[in-house]
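Session log. Operator J.P. requested a structure for one protein chain; no other inputs attached. Running the standard single-chain path with token output.
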Amino acid sequence: MSGTLGRAATGLRSLRPSLIVASAVLLVDQLTKWWALEALGDGEPVHVVWTLQWNLAFNSGMAFGRAQGFGPLIAVVATVVVVALLISLRREGDRASTIGVGLILGGALGNLVDRVFRADGFLDGSVVDFIDFQWFPIFNVADMGINIGGAILVIGYLRAAPRTSDESDGN
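Structure written below.
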């Protein structure tokens, strides 16, 4: 029994850094969405700098406004992604993958929270978006976590990919 508890404790310790990153992303995401709902509820965009403005929008689809009306399906897929990320965290990884997975996990949870708690029906809620460059789709902090985390994982994978014999010979 103590062997099982020891493995469980070790597993939790290996999850801790990613879960801390995910919690930070989730907290900042939900606080900024709360702020956006309070401050931008009148529907008027607020100019910040250059083309950046705060502009409240609700997205019932997926990234970049695609697949409108498929909220429940998107929420189920997001839940599967969250579970898969939690399972992947159980194996040891380098610092970059730990941070990348934490960013993706926090972002996925942030948008999933919107779909669950801002819903009229089962998982049918809309995601709150408010960061608007006017030349790019409106997004939120959770979306930034997902995209930055994904980029970190891709870069880490490319850096760790084994080189072919031609590359290692300098040819």
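Operator note: The mean pLDDT is 85.
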